[in-house]
Amino acid sequence: MLKKTRASLRWRLALIIFLCLLIPGSAIVGLAYIAVHNLTSRHAIEVVGTSAQNRYEHLSGLLEQNQNRINIALSELDQRCSALTKKRPCLEAGLTSLIHREHAEAALLFAPDLPAVQVGELRSSGHADIQFSADQLAYFLPREPGRIPSFLMKAVAPNSQMKLLVSYSSSTLQFIFVKPKELGISGETFLADAKGFFITSARYKSLQGHGVEPISTNPMQRCLSEDSGESLDLDYRDVPIIHGFRYVKEIGGGCIMAHVDQTEAFLPAQALSGIAFLMLILLSALGAIFAVALSNKIAKPIENITRNIANFNLDSDNAHQVMPMADPTYREIEQLAETFDEMASKLGSAVRDKDALLNALNLHAIVSVSDRDGNILDVNEAFCKRSGYSRSELLGKNHRIVSSRTQDREFWAEMWRTISSGKPWRGELCNRAKDGTIYWVDTFIAPFTNDKGDIEKYISIRVDITVSKNNALAMQASNKITSVALEEMRIAEERLAFAFDGSGDGVWDWDLQTNKVLMSKRWKSMLGFEEHEIGSELTEW
To answer: What is the pTM of this model?
Structure first.
Protein backbone atom coordinates (compact mmCIF):
# COMPACT_ATOMS: atom_id res chain seq x y z
CA MET A 1 0.00 0.00 0.00
CA LEU A 2 2.86 2.38 0.85
CA LYS A 3 4.58 1.60 -2.46
CA LYS A 4 1.41 2.42 -4.38
CA THR A 5 1.09 5.67 -2.44
CA ARG A 6 4.68 6.63 -3.23
CA ALA A 7 4.22 5.81 -6.93
CA SER A 8 1.01 7.80 -6.98
CA LEU A 9 2.81 10.73 -5.35
CA ARG A 10 5.57 10.64 -7.96
CA TRP A 11 3.19 10.51 -10.94
CA ARG A 12 0.86 13.13 -9.55
CA LEU A 13 3.75 15.44 -8.82
CA ALA A 14 5.18 14.79 -12.28
CA LEU A 15 1.78 15.51 -13.84
CA ILE A 16 1.47 18.79 -11.93
CA ILE A 17 4.98 19.88 -12.98
CA PHE A 18 4.32 18.78 -16.57
CA LEU A 19 1.08 20.76 -16.74
CA CYS A 20 2.75 23.78 -15.15
CA LEU A 21 5.32 23.68 -17.93
CA LEU A 22 3.06 22.61 -20.79
CA ILE A 23 0.18 25.00 -20.29
CA PRO A 24 2.18 28.26 -20.29
CA GLY A 25 4.58 26.87 -22.89
CA SER A 26 1.70 25.89 -25.17
CA ALA A 27 0.09 29.27 -24.60
CA ILE A 28 3.34 31.03 -25.56
CA VAL A 29 3.81 28.87 -28.67
CA GLY A 30 0.15 29.31 -29.60
CA LEU A 31 0.21 33.07 -29.12
CA ALA A 32 3.47 33.33 -31.07
CA TYR A 33 1.98 31.24 -33.89
CA ILE A 34 -1.19 33.33 -33.94
CA ALA A 35 0.81 36.55 -33.96
CA VAL A 36 3.12 35.39 -36.77
CA HIS A 37 0.18 33.87 -38.69
CA ASN A 38 -1.76 37.13 -38.46
CA LEU A 39 1.32 39.08 -39.45
CA THR A 40 1.90 36.80 -42.43
CA SER A 41 -1.76 37.01 -43.44
CA ARG A 42 -1.79 40.79 -43.17
CA HIS A 43 1.40 40.96 -45.19
CA ALA A 44 -0.08 38.77 -47.94
CA ILE A 45 -3.22 40.92 -48.03
CA GLU A 46 -1.15 44.11 -48.10
CA VAL A 47 0.94 42.75 -50.97
CA VAL A 48 -2.20 42.03 -53.02
CA GLY A 49 -3.67 45.43 -52.20
CA THR A 50 -0.41 47.19 -53.07
CA SER A 51 -0.24 45.30 -56.38
CA ALA A 52 -3.75 46.47 -57.31
CA GLN A 53 -3.00 50.03 -56.21
CA ASN A 54 0.22 50.19 -58.22
CA ARG A 55 -1.58 49.09 -61.36
CA TYR A 56 -4.37 51.57 -60.79
CA GLU A 57 -1.87 54.40 -60.42
CA HIS A 58 0.03 53.17 -63.50
CA LEU A 59 -3.16 53.02 -65.58
CA SER A 60 -4.33 56.44 -64.39
CA GLY A 61 -0.94 57.95 -65.19
CA LEU A 62 -0.90 56.35 -68.64
CA LEU A 63 -4.38 57.66 -69.51
CA GLU A 64 -3.51 61.13 -68.25
CA GLN A 65 -0.38 61.14 -70.40
CA ASN A 66 -2.40 60.05 -73.44
CA GLN A 67 -4.94 62.75 -72.68
CA ASN A 68 -2.27 65.42 -72.48
CA ARG A 69 -0.71 64.32 -75.77
CA ILE A 70 -3.96 64.34 -77.75
CA ASN A 71 -4.89 67.67 -76.22
CA ILE A 72 -1.60 69.07 -77.42
CA ALA A 73 -2.02 67.38 -80.81
CA LEU A 74 -5.51 68.90 -81.22
CA SER A 75 -4.26 72.37 -80.35
CA GLU A 76 -1.42 72.03 -82.85
CA LEU A 77 -3.83 70.88 -85.59
CA ASP A 78 -6.14 73.75 -84.82
CA GLN A 79 -3.30 76.30 -85.07
CA ARG A 80 -1.66 74.79 -88.14
CA CYS A 81 -4.72 74.01 -90.24
CA SER A 82 -7.23 76.72 -89.28
CA ALA A 83 -5.63 79.38 -91.54
CA LEU A 84 -5.50 77.09 -94.60
CA THR A 85 -8.12 77.14 -97.31
CA LYS A 86 -7.93 73.39 -97.67
CA LYS A 87 -8.04 72.26 -94.10
CA ARG A 88 -8.99 68.64 -94.68
CA PRO A 89 -5.67 67.43 -96.16
CA CYS A 90 -3.87 69.18 -93.33
CA LEU A 91 -6.10 67.59 -90.73
CA GLU A 92 -5.80 64.11 -92.30
CA ALA A 93 -2.05 64.37 -92.34
CA GLY A 94 -1.98 65.51 -88.74
CA LEU A 95 -4.31 62.66 -87.65
CA THR A 96 -2.19 60.12 -89.52
CA SER A 97 0.91 61.35 -87.73
CA LEU A 98 -0.96 61.24 -84.41
CA ILE A 99 -2.05 57.61 -84.95
CA HIS A 100 1.51 56.56 -85.62
CA ARG A 101 2.87 58.38 -82.60
CA GLU A 102 0.17 57.06 -80.27
CA HIS A 103 0.06 53.53 -81.72
CA ALA A 104 -3.67 54.07 -82.00
CA GLU A 105 -6.17 52.27 -84.23
CA ALA A 106 -7.96 55.31 -85.57
CA ALA A 107 -8.74 58.98 -85.06
CA LEU A 108 -11.92 60.97 -85.74
CA LEU A 109 -12.04 64.77 -85.84
CA PHE A 110 -15.19 66.91 -85.68
CA ALA A 111 -14.90 70.53 -86.81
CA PRO A 112 -17.71 73.13 -87.00
CA ASP A 113 -17.23 73.99 -90.70
CA LEU A 114 -16.12 70.57 -92.03
CA PRO A 115 -17.47 67.05 -92.29
CA ALA A 116 -15.95 64.56 -89.82
CA VAL A 117 -12.39 63.64 -90.70
CA GLN A 118 -11.49 59.99 -90.01
CA VAL A 119 -8.17 58.22 -90.25
CA GLY A 120 -7.98 54.50 -89.58
CA GLU A 121 -10.78 52.03 -88.91
CA LEU A 122 -13.34 52.68 -86.18
CA ARG A 123 -15.29 49.65 -85.07
CA SER A 124 -18.66 51.30 -84.65
CA SER A 125 -20.53 54.39 -85.67
CA GLY A 126 -22.33 56.94 -83.54
CA HIS A 127 -19.19 58.23 -81.89
CA ALA A 128 -20.45 61.79 -81.86
CA ASP A 129 -23.08 60.81 -79.30
CA ILE A 130 -20.63 59.27 -76.80
CA GLN A 131 -20.83 61.08 -73.45
CA PHE A 132 -17.85 61.28 -71.11
CA SER A 133 -18.39 61.96 -67.39
CA ALA A 134 -16.43 64.67 -65.59
CA ASP A 135 -13.66 62.35 -64.34
CA GLN A 136 -13.74 59.99 -67.30
CA LEU A 137 -10.65 59.82 -69.55
CA ALA A 138 -11.44 56.73 -71.62
CA TYR A 139 -14.56 55.13 -73.03
CA PHE A 140 -14.57 51.41 -73.85
CA LEU A 141 -16.55 50.48 -76.91
CA PRO A 142 -19.08 47.64 -76.78
CA ARG A 143 -17.43 44.27 -76.98
CA GLU A 144 -17.28 42.39 -80.27
CA PRO A 145 -16.88 38.60 -80.18
CA GLY A 146 -13.42 37.47 -81.13
CA ARG A 147 -11.88 40.95 -81.08
CA ILE A 148 -9.71 42.74 -78.59
CA PRO A 149 -11.67 45.50 -76.83
CA SER A 150 -11.04 49.10 -77.90
CA PHE A 151 -11.41 52.35 -76.02
CA LEU A 152 -11.76 55.98 -77.04
CA MET A 153 -10.12 59.08 -75.63
CA LYS A 154 -11.46 62.56 -76.33
CA ALA A 155 -9.88 66.00 -76.69
CA VAL A 156 -11.75 69.31 -77.17
CA ALA A 157 -10.27 72.62 -78.41
CA PRO A 158 -11.98 75.35 -76.38
CA ASN A 159 -11.48 78.14 -78.95
CA SER A 160 -12.50 76.47 -82.19
CA GLN A 161 -14.91 73.91 -80.71
CA MET A 162 -13.04 71.14 -82.51
CA LYS A 163 -13.42 67.65 -80.94
CA LEU A 164 -11.02 64.76 -81.39
CA LEU A 165 -11.66 61.05 -80.67
CA VAL A 166 -8.73 58.63 -80.67
CA SER A 167 -9.35 54.86 -80.65
CA TYR A 168 -6.85 52.62 -78.87
CA SER A 169 -6.65 48.86 -78.60
CA SER A 170 -6.77 47.61 -75.02
CA SER A 171 -3.68 45.58 -75.86
CA THR A 172 -1.76 48.82 -75.31
CA LEU A 173 -2.67 48.49 -71.62
CA GLN A 174 -1.70 44.82 -71.32
CA PHE A 175 1.88 45.56 -70.29
CA ILE A 176 0.54 47.06 -67.05
CA PHE A 177 -1.05 43.74 -66.13
CA VAL A 178 1.68 41.30 -67.02
CA LYS A 179 2.36 38.48 -64.60
CA PRO A 180 3.15 40.15 -61.25
CA LYS A 181 6.22 38.71 -59.57
CA GLU A 182 5.11 39.87 -56.13
CA LEU A 183 1.99 37.67 -56.34
CA GLY A 184 3.83 34.42 -56.86
CA ILE A 185 2.85 31.58 -59.17
CA SER A 186 -0.93 31.78 -58.87
CA GLY A 187 -1.22 35.56 -58.78
CA GLU A 188 -2.55 37.71 -61.63
CA THR A 189 -3.92 41.18 -62.28
CA PHE A 190 -6.46 42.36 -64.88
CA LEU A 191 -8.77 45.19 -65.88
CA ALA A 192 -12.53 44.76 -66.24
CA ASP A 193 -15.08 47.18 -67.64
CA ALA A 194 -18.24 48.44 -65.93
CA LYS A 195 -20.20 45.35 -67.01
CA GLY A 196 -17.70 42.85 -65.65
CA PHE A 197 -16.04 41.88 -68.94
CA PHE A 198 -12.31 41.27 -69.09
CA ILE A 199 -10.50 44.10 -70.86
CA THR A 200 -7.03 42.75 -70.47
CA SER A 201 -6.20 39.07 -70.75
CA ALA A 202 -6.47 36.70 -67.78
CA ARG A 203 -4.81 33.36 -67.27
CA TYR A 204 -8.07 31.45 -66.74
CA LYS A 205 -10.25 33.48 -69.12
CA SER A 206 -11.34 30.30 -70.89
CA LEU A 207 -13.32 29.38 -67.80
CA GLN A 208 -15.54 32.39 -68.53
CA GLY A 209 -16.39 31.55 -72.12
CA HIS A 210 -13.23 33.01 -73.69
CA GLY A 211 -14.06 36.39 -72.26
CA VAL A 212 -17.43 36.73 -74.00
CA GLU A 213 -19.42 36.52 -70.79
CA PRO A 214 -19.37 38.99 -67.87
CA ILE A 215 -18.01 37.85 -64.53
CA SER A 216 -20.66 37.88 -61.79
CA THR A 217 -18.70 36.46 -58.83
CA ASN A 218 -18.60 38.19 -55.45
CA PRO A 219 -15.11 39.63 -55.98
CA MET A 220 -16.19 41.24 -59.27
CA GLN A 221 -19.41 42.60 -57.77
CA ARG A 222 -17.38 44.06 -54.94
CA CYS A 223 -14.83 45.40 -57.38
CA LEU A 224 -17.51 47.27 -59.38
CA SER A 225 -19.15 48.79 -56.29
CA GLU A 226 -17.19 52.05 -56.57
CA ASP A 227 -15.10 50.93 -53.61
CA SER A 228 -11.51 49.88 -53.03
CA GLY A 229 -10.02 47.39 -50.61
CA GLU A 230 -8.94 43.81 -50.00
CA SER A 231 -10.88 40.71 -48.95
CA LEU A 232 -10.92 36.92 -48.94
CA ASP A 233 -13.37 35.24 -51.28
CA LEU A 234 -13.93 32.75 -54.12
CA ASP A 235 -12.94 33.89 -57.60
CA TYR A 236 -14.50 33.03 -60.96
CA ARG A 237 -12.84 29.58 -60.69
CA ASP A 238 -14.44 28.97 -57.27
CA VAL A 239 -10.95 28.98 -55.78
CA PRO A 240 -10.32 30.74 -52.41
CA ILE A 241 -8.28 33.85 -53.13
CA ILE A 242 -7.03 37.06 -51.60
CA HIS A 243 -8.11 39.84 -53.92
CA GLY A 244 -7.34 43.53 -53.95
CA PHE A 245 -9.67 45.75 -55.99
CA ARG A 246 -9.60 49.36 -57.10
CA TYR A 247 -12.51 51.12 -58.76
CA VAL A 248 -11.41 53.00 -61.92
CA LYS A 249 -13.51 56.10 -62.51
CA GLU A 250 -11.16 57.18 -65.31
CA ILE A 251 -12.73 54.61 -67.69
CA GLY A 252 -16.29 55.45 -66.70
CA GLY A 253 -16.73 52.57 -64.33
CA GLY A 254 -14.65 49.44 -64.12
CA CYS A 255 -12.08 47.97 -61.84
CA ILE A 256 -8.57 46.69 -61.49
CA MET A 257 -8.17 43.45 -59.57
CA ALA A 258 -5.13 41.67 -58.23
CA HIS A 259 -5.51 38.26 -56.63
CA VAL A 260 -3.55 35.27 -55.46
CA ASP A 261 -4.66 31.85 -54.30
CA GLN A 262 -4.96 31.62 -50.50
CA THR A 263 -3.15 28.29 -50.56
CA GLU A 264 -0.01 29.95 -51.91
CA ALA A 265 -0.41 33.21 -49.96
CA PHE A 266 -0.79 31.47 -46.62
CA LEU A 267 1.85 28.83 -47.30
CA PRO A 268 4.34 30.48 -44.88
CA ALA A 269 1.65 30.56 -42.21
CA GLN A 270 0.91 26.88 -42.82
CA ALA A 271 4.62 26.14 -42.54
CA LEU A 272 4.59 28.01 -39.26
CA SER A 273 1.77 25.77 -38.04
CA GLY A 274 3.96 22.73 -38.69
CA ILE A 275 6.86 24.36 -36.89
CA ALA A 276 4.58 25.32 -34.00
CA PHE A 277 3.31 21.74 -33.80
CA LEU A 278 6.86 20.36 -33.75
CA MET A 279 7.83 22.90 -31.09
CA LEU A 280 4.82 21.84 -29.03
CA ILE A 281 5.79 18.17 -29.31
CA LEU A 282 9.39 19.00 -28.39
CA LEU A 283 8.22 21.13 -25.48
CA SER A 284 5.95 18.31 -24.29
CA ALA A 285 8.77 15.76 -24.48
CA LEU A 286 11.26 17.99 -22.67
CA GLY A 287 8.59 18.98 -20.15
CA ALA A 288 7.75 15.32 -19.47
CA ILE A 289 11.42 14.42 -18.96
CA PHE A 290 12.02 17.41 -16.72
CA ALA A 291 8.79 16.78 -14.78
CA VAL A 292 9.69 13.13 -14.10
CA ALA A 293 13.23 14.04 -13.04
CA LEU A 294 12.11 16.90 -10.82
CA SER A 295 9.25 14.89 -9.31
CA ASN A 296 11.67 12.10 -8.42
CA LYS A 297 14.06 14.58 -6.82
CA ILE A 298 11.25 16.23 -4.84
CA ALA A 299 9.34 13.04 -4.02
CA LYS A 300 12.35 11.06 -2.81
CA PRO A 301 12.91 12.98 0.46
CA ILE A 302 9.15 13.16 0.99
CA GLU A 303 8.93 9.39 0.49
CA ASN A 304 11.78 8.90 2.98
CA ILE A 305 9.90 10.94 5.55
CA THR A 306 6.66 9.09 4.75
CA ARG A 307 8.37 5.71 5.07
CA ASN A 308 9.96 6.65 8.38
CA ILE A 309 6.66 8.03 9.65
CA ALA A 310 4.89 4.83 8.62
CA ASN A 311 7.55 2.69 10.33
CA PHE A 312 7.83 4.91 13.39
CA ASN A 313 6.77 3.08 16.59
CA LEU A 314 5.54 5.26 19.41
CA ASP A 315 5.70 2.34 21.81
CA SER A 316 9.46 1.96 21.46
CA ASP A 317 12.28 4.10 22.69
CA ASN A 318 12.47 7.03 20.27
CA ALA A 319 16.13 7.60 21.01
CA HIS A 320 17.07 4.33 19.22
CA GLN A 321 14.92 4.92 16.15
CA VAL A 322 16.25 6.33 12.87
CA MET A 323 14.70 9.71 12.20
CA PRO A 324 13.89 10.83 8.61
CA MET A 325 16.80 12.38 6.76
CA ALA A 326 16.09 14.96 4.06
CA ASP A 327 18.03 16.17 1.06
CA PRO A 328 19.64 19.47 2.14
CA THR A 329 18.75 20.86 -1.31
CA TYR A 330 15.22 21.32 -0.03
CA ARG A 331 15.43 23.27 3.20
CA GLU A 332 11.68 23.08 3.71
CA ILE A 333 11.75 19.27 3.65
CA GLU A 334 14.74 19.26 5.97
CA GLN A 335 12.84 21.51 8.35
CA LEU A 336 9.89 19.13 8.03
CA ALA A 337 12.10 16.24 9.06
CA GLU A 338 13.47 18.22 11.99
CA THR A 339 9.94 19.17 13.02
CA PHE A 340 8.90 15.53 12.77
CA ASP A 341 11.86 14.54 14.91
CA GLU A 342 10.85 17.01 17.60
CA MET A 343 7.20 16.10 17.30
CA ALA A 344 7.95 12.39 17.51
CA SER A 345 9.97 12.92 20.68
CA LYS A 346 7.21 14.94 22.30
CA LEU A 347 4.54 12.57 21.05
CA GLY A 348 6.41 9.55 22.36
CA SER A 349 6.74 11.19 25.76
CA ALA A 350 3.05 12.08 25.69
CA VAL A 351 2.13 8.54 24.73
CA ARG A 352 4.17 7.13 27.61
CA ASP A 353 2.53 9.56 30.01
CA LYS A 354 -0.84 8.61 28.60
CA ASP A 355 -0.11 4.91 28.97
CA ALA A 356 1.02 5.40 32.58
CA LEU A 357 -2.11 7.42 33.30
CA LEU A 358 -4.37 4.81 31.72
CA ASN A 359 -2.65 2.01 33.60
CA ALA A 360 -3.11 3.85 36.88
CA LEU A 361 -6.69 4.64 35.99
CA ASN A 362 -7.46 1.02 35.08
CA LEU A 363 -5.95 -0.19 38.35
CA HIS A 364 -7.82 2.18 40.64
CA ALA A 365 -10.96 3.21 38.74
CA ILE A 366 -13.97 1.58 37.16
CA VAL A 367 -14.11 2.85 33.56
CA SER A 368 -16.76 2.39 30.86
CA VAL A 369 -17.57 3.95 27.47
CA SER A 370 -21.15 4.17 26.23
CA ASP A 371 -22.96 5.61 23.24
CA ARG A 372 -25.33 8.54 23.43
CA ASP A 373 -28.18 6.22 24.48
CA GLY A 374 -26.24 4.74 27.41
CA ASN A 375 -25.40 1.42 25.71
CA ILE A 376 -22.01 0.07 26.77
CA LEU A 377 -19.28 0.18 24.10
CA ASP A 378 -16.26 -0.71 26.25
CA VAL A 379 -15.37 -1.49 29.89
CA ASN A 380 -12.14 -2.07 31.74
CA GLU A 381 -11.25 -5.06 33.86
CA ALA A 382 -12.13 -3.22 37.09
CA PHE A 383 -15.71 -2.75 35.90
CA CYS A 384 -16.09 -6.46 35.16
CA LYS A 385 -14.54 -7.45 38.48
CA ARG A 386 -16.70 -5.15 40.61
CA SER A 387 -19.97 -5.82 38.80
CA GLY A 388 -19.44 -9.55 38.52
CA TYR A 389 -20.35 -9.53 34.81
CA SER A 390 -18.01 -10.65 32.03
CA ARG A 391 -17.01 -8.30 29.24
CA SER A 392 -19.18 -10.12 26.68
CA GLU A 393 -22.18 -9.83 29.06
CA LEU A 394 -21.76 -6.07 29.35
CA LEU A 395 -20.97 -4.95 25.77
CA GLY A 396 -24.06 -3.72 23.98
CA LYS A 397 -26.13 -3.65 27.19
CA ASN A 398 -27.47 -0.53 28.84
CA HIS A 399 -26.01 0.70 32.13
CA ARG A 400 -29.35 -0.20 33.72
CA ILE A 401 -27.92 -3.74 33.99
CA VAL A 402 -26.04 -2.64 37.13
CA SER A 403 -28.69 -0.27 38.49
CA SER A 404 -29.98 -1.00 42.02
CA ARG A 405 -32.98 1.25 41.46
CA THR A 406 -32.21 2.99 44.72
CA GLN A 407 -32.16 6.50 43.24
CA ASP A 408 -35.52 7.86 42.13
CA ARG A 409 -36.49 8.94 38.61
CA GLU A 410 -35.90 12.62 39.28
CA PHE A 411 -32.28 11.81 40.18
CA TRP A 412 -31.67 10.06 36.83
CA ALA A 413 -33.59 12.70 34.86
CA GLU A 414 -31.40 15.43 36.30
CA MET A 415 -28.24 13.47 35.44
CA TRP A 416 -29.35 12.94 31.79
CA ARG A 417 -30.32 16.58 31.41
CA THR A 418 -26.81 17.57 32.45
CA ILE A 419 -24.75 15.20 30.28
CA SER A 420 -27.03 15.45 27.21
CA SER A 421 -26.46 19.22 27.21
CA GLY A 422 -22.70 18.54 26.84
CA LYS A 423 -21.79 19.23 30.49
CA PRO A 424 -19.97 16.77 32.77
CA TRP A 425 -21.77 15.32 35.80
CA ARG A 426 -20.54 13.95 39.14
CA GLY A 427 -22.48 12.10 41.81
CA GLU A 428 -22.80 8.94 43.90
CA LEU A 429 -24.54 5.93 42.37
CA CYS A 430 -25.82 2.84 44.08
CA ASN A 431 -25.25 -0.20 41.83
CA ARG A 432 -26.16 -3.85 42.13
CA ALA A 433 -23.64 -6.57 41.18
CA LYS A 434 -24.53 -9.74 39.34
CA ASP A 435 -24.75 -11.67 42.65
CA GLY A 436 -27.18 -9.08 44.05
CA THR A 437 -24.79 -7.27 46.38
CA ILE A 438 -25.07 -3.52 46.60
CA TYR A 439 -22.04 -1.29 46.04
CA TRP A 440 -21.59 2.44 45.88
CA VAL A 441 -19.45 4.34 43.32
CA ASP A 442 -18.41 7.98 43.14
CA THR A 443 -19.05 8.62 39.43
CA PHE A 444 -17.77 11.22 36.94
CA ILE A 445 -19.40 11.22 33.45
CA ALA A 446 -17.89 13.28 30.59
CA PRO A 447 -19.63 13.69 27.20
CA PHE A 448 -17.47 13.66 24.01
CA THR A 449 -18.65 15.60 20.91
CA ASN A 450 -17.69 15.52 17.20
CA ASP A 451 -16.70 18.41 14.93
CA LYS A 452 -20.35 19.40 14.51
CA GLY A 453 -20.91 19.59 18.26
CA ASP A 454 -23.05 16.42 18.38
CA ILE A 455 -22.47 14.04 21.30
CA GLU A 456 -20.93 10.78 20.15
CA LYS A 457 -20.22 8.95 23.41
CA TYR A 458 -19.88 9.21 27.18
CA ILE A 459 -16.89 8.14 29.27
CA SER A 460 -17.64 7.22 32.90
CA ILE A 461 -14.95 7.00 35.59
CA ARG A 462 -16.03 5.50 38.94
CA VAL A 463 -14.38 4.97 42.31
CA ASP A 464 -15.70 2.29 44.66
CA ILE A 465 -16.84 4.00 47.88
CA THR A 466 -18.86 1.11 49.32
CA VAL A 467 -16.80 0.80 52.52
CA SER A 468 -16.81 4.51 53.27
CA LYS A 469 -20.46 4.72 52.29
CA ASN A 470 -21.40 1.83 54.61
CA ASN A 471 -19.36 3.39 57.43
CA ALA A 472 -21.17 6.63 56.87
CA LEU A 473 -24.51 4.87 56.95
CA ALA A 474 -23.53 2.99 60.13
CA MET A 475 -22.38 6.17 61.77
CA GLN A 476 -25.61 7.77 60.70
CA ALA A 477 -27.57 4.91 62.35
CA SER A 478 -25.44 5.14 65.50
CA ASN A 479 -25.96 8.81 65.66
CA LYS A 480 -29.66 8.24 65.34
CA ILE A 481 -29.64 5.79 68.37
CA THR A 482 -27.59 8.19 70.42
CA SER A 483 -29.96 10.94 69.54
CA VAL A 484 -32.90 8.81 70.76
CA ALA A 485 -31.13 8.02 74.07
CA LEU A 486 -30.24 11.61 74.61
CA GLU A 487 -33.78 12.58 73.88
CA GLU A 488 -35.04 10.07 76.49
CA MET A 489 -32.50 11.33 79.04
CA ARG A 490 -33.61 14.85 78.38
CA ILE A 491 -37.19 13.84 79.01
CA ALA A 492 -36.22 12.07 82.26
CA GLU A 493 -34.28 15.05 83.45
CA GLU A 494 -37.24 17.23 82.73
CA ARG A 495 -39.45 14.89 84.75
CA LEU A 496 -37.02 14.88 87.67
CA ALA A 497 -36.67 18.57 87.61
CA PHE A 498 -40.40 18.81 87.62
CA ALA A 499 -40.69 16.29 90.46
CA PHE A 500 -37.91 17.67 92.60
CA ASP A 501 -38.26 21.27 92.01
CA GLY A 502 -42.01 21.50 91.51
CA SER A 503 -42.97 21.10 95.21
CA GLY A 504 -41.52 20.61 98.75
CA ASP A 505 -43.23 17.21 99.29
CA GLY A 506 -41.55 13.88 99.22
CA VAL A 507 -41.65 12.50 95.67
CA TRP A 508 -40.53 9.28 94.19
CA ASP A 509 -40.58 8.05 90.55
CA TRP A 510 -40.44 4.46 89.31
CA ASP A 511 -39.33 4.00 85.69
CA LEU A 512 -40.85 0.73 84.59
CA GLN A 513 -38.66 0.45 81.48
CA THR A 514 -35.36 0.80 83.34
CA ASN A 515 -36.67 -0.50 86.67
CA LYS A 516 -35.09 2.47 88.38
CA VAL A 517 -36.56 4.42 91.33
CA LEU A 518 -35.78 8.09 91.72
CA MET A 519 -36.54 9.73 95.14
CA SER A 520 -36.48 13.37 96.08
CA LYS A 521 -34.33 14.60 98.95
CA ARG A 522 -37.42 15.37 100.98
CA TRP A 523 -38.69 11.84 100.59
CA LYS A 524 -35.35 10.40 101.78
CA SER A 525 -35.35 12.67 104.78
CA MET A 526 -38.96 11.73 105.60
CA LEU A 527 -37.76 8.14 105.72
CA GLY A 528 -34.90 9.14 108.06
CA PHE A 529 -32.04 8.74 105.63
CA GLU A 530 -29.41 11.04 104.27
CA GLU A 531 -29.50 11.64 100.57
CA HIS A 532 -26.41 9.58 99.85
CA GLU A 533 -27.60 6.61 101.84
CA ILE A 534 -30.30 5.47 99.42
CA GLY A 535 -29.55 4.68 95.72
CA SER A 536 -31.87 4.37 92.71
CA GLU A 537 -32.12 0.57 92.54
CA LEU A 538 -35.47 -1.05 93.27
CA THR A 539 -33.82 -3.27 95.85
CA GLU A 540 -33.05 -0.15 97.95
CA TRP A 541 -36.64 -0.35 99.09
So the answer is: 0.51
